[in-house]
Amino acid sequence: MIEAIREAHDVAMAADERVVVFGEDVGFFGGVFRCTAGLQEKYGKSRCFDAPINESGIVGTAIGMAAYGLKPVIEIQFADYVYPAYDQIVSEAARLRHRSNADFTCPLVIRMPTGGGIFGGQTHSQSPEALFTHVSGLKVVMPSNPRDAKGLLLAAIADPDPVIFFEPKRLYNGPFDGHHDKPVESWKSHPLGEVPDGDGIVPLGKAAVRRAGAEVTVLAYGTMVFVAEAAAAETGVDAEVIDLRSLMPLDLEAIVGSVQKTGRCVIVHEATRTSGFGAELMALVQEHCFYHLEAPVIRVTGWDTPYPHAQEWEYFPGPGRVGEALKKVMED
Amino acid sequence: MIEAIREAHDVAMAADERVVVFGEDVGFFGGVFRCTAGLQEKYGKSRCFDAPINESGIVGTAIGMAAYGLKPVIEIQFADYVYPAYDQIVSEAARLRHRSNADFTCPLVIRMPTGGGIFGGQTHSQSPEALFTHVSGLKVVMPSNPRDAKGLLLAAIADPDPVIFFEPKRLYNGPFDGHHDKPVESWKSHPLGEVPDGDGIVPLGKAAVRRAGAEVTVLAYGTMVFVAEAAAAETGVDAEVIDLRSLMPLDLEAIVGSVQKTGRCVIVHEATRTSGFGAELMALVQEHCFYHLEAPVIRVTGWDTPYPHAQEWEYFPGPGRVGEALKKVMED
Amino acid sequence: MTSDTRPLSLNVPEPGCRPGNTPDFSGFEIPRAGAVPRPPVDVDPDAIRDMAFSIVRVLNKDGEAVGDWAGALSTEELHEGLRHMLLLRTFDARMLNAQRQGKTSFYMQHLGEEAVSCAFSRALEPGDMNFPTYRQAGLLIASGYPMVTMMNQIYSNAEDPLHGRQLPIMYSSKEHGFFTISGNLGTQFVQSVGWAMASAISGDTRIAAGWIGDGSTAENDFHAAMVFASTYTAPVVLNIVNNQWAISTFQGIARGGVGTFAARGHGFGIASVRVDGNDYLAVHAVAKWACERARRGHGPTLIEHVTYRAGGHSTSDDPSAYRSRREAAAWPLGDPVERLKKHLIAIGEWSEERHAQAEAEVLDTVRAAQKEAEAIGTLSAGKVPSPRDMFEGVYETMPPHLIRQRQEAGF
Amino acid sequence: MTSDTRPLSLNVPEPGCRPGNTPDFSGFEIPRAGAVPRPPVDVDPDAIRDMAFSIVRVLNKDGEAVGDWAGALSTEELHEGLRHMLLLRTFDARMLNAQRQGKTSFYMQHLGEEAVSCAFSRALEPGDMNFPTYRQAGLLIASGYPMVTMMNQIYSNAEDPLHGRQLPIMYSSKEHGFFTISGNLGTQFVQSVGWAMASAISGDTRIAAGWIGDGSTAENDFHAAMVFASTYTAPVVLNIVNNQWAISTFQGIARGGVGTFAARGHGFGIASVRVDGNDYLAVHAVAKWACERARRGHGPTLIEHVTYRAGGHSTSDDPSAYRSRREAAAWPLGDPVERLKKHLIAIGEWSEERHAQAEAEVLDTVRAAQKEAEAIGTLSAGKVPSPRDMFEGVYETMPPHLIRQRQEAGF
Ligand SMILES: Cc1ncc(C[n+]2csc(CCOP(=O)(O)OP(=O)(O)O)c2C)c(N)n1
Ligand SMILES: Cc1ncc(C[n+]2csc(CCOP(=O)(O)OP(=O)(O)O)c2C)c(N)n1
Ligand SMILES: [Mg+2]
Ligand SMILES: [Mg+2]
Fold first, then answer.
1. Is D230 near chain B, with CB under 8 Å?
2. Residues 45-64, chain B: which have Cβ within 8 Å of A?
């Protein structure tokens, strides 16, 4: 997935001089996850450069650049470190267009590695997506595979509005279904690991059905898509696994269509439960599918605790827990 | 309500030397809403003082003070200005106890005027409570009247953990049911405007039934409690209006008890809808009352836009919109 | 621990004067006009560290323009400058009154600080971009932005270019180099640096100007602005308007133990200058110097405009609760309008009569604009923006959930 | 616009040396040992501005302790200091290796920076509080915190005092004046100021010490710390550890156009001193001076410890990708262990033999601790914390929703 992200940058920078890339360690070194490797050499220091360690300043200057007419694509080293920039994102990036009546706009992509599963402890594992879906004016995206990562990032860069782009870091090097004891897989052997050349986008706001099914709809995104697929396979429950890909805008049609068909729904995310994005999904499902639901919708999520280091796999909503939910929702 | 809040400070400061109060303009002037008036004179400049305009620094220093052993009660001038402090609250205040295994703790109260209805525009009207309920380690409180304001603030100050204390500014000077064309009411004539002397607390985590009813449960907090009462009165729907008072911890028992009784539920908040606290309430209701629900739960909320200046009353979820929801939920 | 250690205590700075006290500015050092030399624009910031502790002043007590920094403006330009300040002052007075009459919800005035934004504006070129606070409307007035449009914004009427979405006075005009004002203090200081960096990245020649109040320099975004401006040598002028007060909080709480706000620049190797903010000529001269530095690639300049907020913070504020009513009159740098008027009279280019006439003309202009704006509507009456407008422009294309909400709202 | 204006361009600072280049520190000015005088502790910060551009050094090339700042430590204390640094270095080496063996997930070492935290620790009194980063474990070691407890934390085993909740090396010990480390850079700098303010509010005599890396000074919390420390004259020592690198980013990106990080203090009127961070005696002397300033009510001091990160940033980092492999050896301030050893030999209180013996003893000590810790468990084997622990301590009393979740989890 790293290579796909790097490629998306490359394609966008080659096509449009206004695309500039910066962040902590992204210049000479190419980023601690190497997602921007080689860009400085290829496009020069004024289009790809290291920033001081100041997330608020990175976003704040990027907003100024976007208002000027550039298209900054910036990296926050870990999603856990986005909070210092929260004010600039919420009060400024998200608001420019509306409050100025489009006199000034903010085409800006904020990328950040997200999620756990790498023994990163509480400050390298968080999934703060719900803190952004609550903010009007932002778009929120989370790919689950290299193909989507490239296409969605290109779509995000082309978008005229600010996009928060979460990259599940446990998927950087291969698919991961939560079975941490199994040997690590690489993207090479996975069909979604094959990334088309060129500048094709994956549109924001369109979900993908990763596994068709008739009995229950599983709504997931990021790493949890693979966990859900594994849980379906392991339990034998005929689940329809929907990869939301973009949380805002959300593909409500795909969700409602599937849940109305299956009559059951399980929602999976890695973030803490209370006020997580699962709550919004649950609300939408009950608003739009109330009369089709045959059982209570179930959330399988991270617990309402900091992401622990040693107890990582007890925290991570793995295939065991998702499988239990699938079985339960079928019994209810 | 201002006087009740001032009194709570006074009682707490008199009882416990460790209580210190600071924030922008809170010292000599007593705060732009006068909630700390007279405290500096009474308790001296080292227990009540003006802070530099730096919300992050206010919270950051308060965390240091709390870790030292003091009990800081700080004011963010408007909830809209809490975002610069978001990192300190989320990554630090909320985490100290857990990550240090209680070696260090953070008994801290962060007060902030919240909500609209005063033509404050997008930066003096926001209701960001859901951004805090998603963060484990925080408690979140919002009183709707002077009596609760005093008792809940005293409970918050006594609490061993960080508490985010939202004060609906439209209620500072009197109850408000959303009928902005009616003459302004004062707390004097309202039963909940009468504040008992002394140090009695209202415990965190206990909701209050503001209006008993049999047909539908309305979950509300802050200003919306009065709006819901008005809507019930005006539509004649026999609604049970529950004032949640504390969102974290939440009085799930009260909610579930009521919804299982009425079979219907309307959720009202002023914050933007998507990923608002209403989504969590909706999720909890469907998880715990699925088999009792006779109609889809309805959310009546602020729209997913910035809080506009001129269109304030079209944005504000007033008694008209809540009344419509009550009627609809009864028809469904 | 050394055995003689005594208990510590908290130092909380206090202003010199509270209600009931007699204002005393005798400790406030004011160099004489003309005393500070004008360095070349490519000066090494380290070589002018003393400028952060002095004050560039051009107009002396007798209204003469003296020293290195004098002589940059023609008589015509000075006349125009005076007119801009009068326009702003009159505009303020009328809008304050309109707010009291309920025609709008809120207003903030510039009384005593008119020179800062009016004179600065003249140093910029078309295409440059200001990132102003709510107290730099002089940038719009001096650049010829239509006053009636400002009023439409304040009234949130149907012709408000911001469609009623924003709080009064939170103007936006890309065309006039005036970035959309934020209600959040400090955020835009660093954005101005980003805009300037973008200009440099693009090989452009345009520069940016950031603005911040004395109290708001305490905000963290101030630091971000300084760090990025310093590291990338951004073509930006960073303005601190030190009007002595931040609502009820005196400047000492934000400034702390350093002598001046300008000195903040020294920690970043940024050229830092203090200027008499009530001296139209001095503000203009320093602004011009700083803009030239930026445009020629010599990097950022930090300017502390030393002035005084003679009025209340906003229409929600009554300053007599926290400072002496006599403080404004005691402020030693005088009134910017009076000082420019005196200068023009001193050089034989103005008179009391012409001044009275100018005031009358200005009042007519403002009144006419007000009439025009009120004919359209105010917050309380007339034509107002559509509620639909609240849903528009959150994104370029309205996403499905907002379309659904708009329908639910019935608009 | 002046007609001769040329296109602007972005300045992006570059380190002197990248992989393949020859390191060149010839531009790095190093005053000779003993050159900087020791001012009284109540000195006016403005009077010592030059100290932010010089470097306090005690040990000269020949290992002699010279100048005003020398003479504060007894031979016994120096022996102990050397032992602390050896312990830390050996601890690091063993834990790095343990990480490679999969006994833990992550480790960060101090190679080349041992003097900073080990010497500073000695200047504090019991009850004082450090707010450290992940690179000051010397504070724990020098204050006698049990090494086996540190290892239990690193291994997240059943005896980890933090119950496996935290990333390795994110220690916490109130008793040892070591605040719970945050993974978020910069946040704790301002907390140290708050803790110090609390001490002052309480009429206490304890002081705080904040810690931050060169790269992290760019974070906004740095500003908040400076503003509050300056305004309230907080009894705090604010330490910047300038080890030249922030992962792959050289210090120039954070520092920008100012000569030194210490100079950042000048914008706040804070006493600011640079010290040779690889000189145990100098670090200790400056720390003692700064702590005394704080404790006697003279307010904050900003110390820039000039040192070099000789190892990788962490076990996740390979520095050869972004800097020359020869840079560490070329670093002109030498190695702190070697320098103190040389001094002790120079004063006739040490020898190569004694040093070898000390190294062997230290290795035994560390090995023994490691054996003890590993007998309890590591991340991959042995006794581990209970999953219940993850739900405990989020709040003092577990709220109902967490009890429900714990039950759901089955613990
Ligand atoms: C982030 C933030 N915090 C607090 C406020 C509330 N507030 C509005 S103006 C003001 C005082 C600003 O003072 P100063 O920067 O000196 O500017 P002045 O009003 O004097 O021009 C405060 C505290 C705000 N608007 N934004
Ligand atoms: C808020 C935040 N942003 C980014 C990071 C990622 N990060 C961890 S260490 C580091 C470099 C810090 O460099 P410096 O401050 O010089 O300290 P050093 O590692 O050299 O001791 C970075 C960028 C983080 N931990 N927290
Ligand atoms: Mg001010
Ligand atoms: Mg470093």
1. no
2. none
Topology classification of domain B205-331: Rossmann fold (3.40.50)
**Identity of the residue in D105, D170, D321 whose CB atom sits nearest the CB atom of A119:** D105
Put simply, whether D349 touches A (Cβ < 8 Å) is no
Q: Which residue's CA lies nearest to atom 8 of ligand 2?
A: D185
CB-count exposure of residue D66 (10 Å: 0-12, 13-18, 19+): middle
Contact (CB<8Å) C195/A65: yes
Q: Where would I find the H helices in D332-384?
A: 336-346, 352-376
| Nearest ligand (C-alpha, residue A53) | 2
Q: How far apart are CA D103 and CA D370, in angstroms?
A: 11
A2-178 against A205-331: fold identical: yes
Is D194 buried (19+), middle (13-18) or exposed (0-12) by CB count in 10 A? buried
Cα–ligand 4 centroid distance for D327 (angstroms): 15
What tokens appear for B1 in the block? 């309500």
The pocket around ligand 1, CB under 6 angstroms, is made up of B 24, 53, 55, 77, 81, 84; C 133, 135, 183-185, 213-216, 241, 243, 245-247, 309, 313
Cis bond before residue A249 (omega within 30° of 0): yes
The minimum CA-CA distance between A152 and chain B, rounded to whole Å, is: 22
Give the distance from CA B139 to its chain's centroid: 11
ipTM summary value: 0.98
Rounded (to 5) percent helix, strand, coil in chain D: 40, 10, 50
Task: Find chain A residues with C-beta within 8 A of D156's C-beta.
Answer: 309-310
> Environment class of residue C27 by beta-carbon count within 10 Å: exposed (0-12), middle (13-18) or buried (19+)?
exposed
Average the pLDDT over C394-403 and give the result.
98
DSSP string of C246-268? ETTEEHHHHHTTSS-SGGGGGGG
Mutation test of the interface with chain B: which of A101, A125, A134, A291, choosing the one with the most B Cβ atoms within 10 A?
A134
> What CATH number does the domain located at A2-178 have?
3.40.50.970
Give the global pTM: 0.98
Torsion region of D19: left, alpha or beta (phi above 0 gives left; psi -120 to 50 gives alpha): beta
Residue D210: phi and psi, rounded to 5, are: -95, 150
Residues of B in contact with A297 (CB under 8 A): 283, 286-287
Strand partners, D129: D208
Record the tokens describing residue C161, joined without a space: 């270019």
Ligand 2 test: best mutation among A53, A74, A110, A112, most atoms within 8 Å of CB? A53
Q: pLDDT band for C3, please (50, 70, 90 cuts).
A: low
CB B137 within 8 A of CB B88: no
Distance CA C137, CA C118 (A): 8
Confidence of residue D1 (pLDDT cuts 50, 70, 90): very low
B298-302 and B239-243 beta bridge pairing: unpaired
Q: Is B141 helix (H, G, I), strand (E, B) or coil?
A: strand
pLDDT tens digits for A172-204?
999 999 999 999 999 999 999 999 999 999 999
The most distant pair of C-alpha atoms in chain D lies apart, rounded to whole Å, by 77
DSSP at B299 = E
Q: A25, D247 in Cβ contact below 8 A?
A: yes
D336-347 pLDDT, tens digit per residue, is 999 999 999 999
Q: How far is the CA of D214 from the centre of ligand 2 (A)?
A: 9
Neighboring chain C residues of D218 at a CB cutoff of 8 Å:
227
The alpha-carbon gap from C384 to the nearest alpha carbon of chain A, in Å, equals 16
Q: Which chain A positions have a beta carbon within 8 Å of D401's beta carbon?
A: 274, 304
Q: What angle do CA A302, B265, B223 make, to 5 degrees?
A: 90
Domain boundaries, chain A: 2-178, 205-331
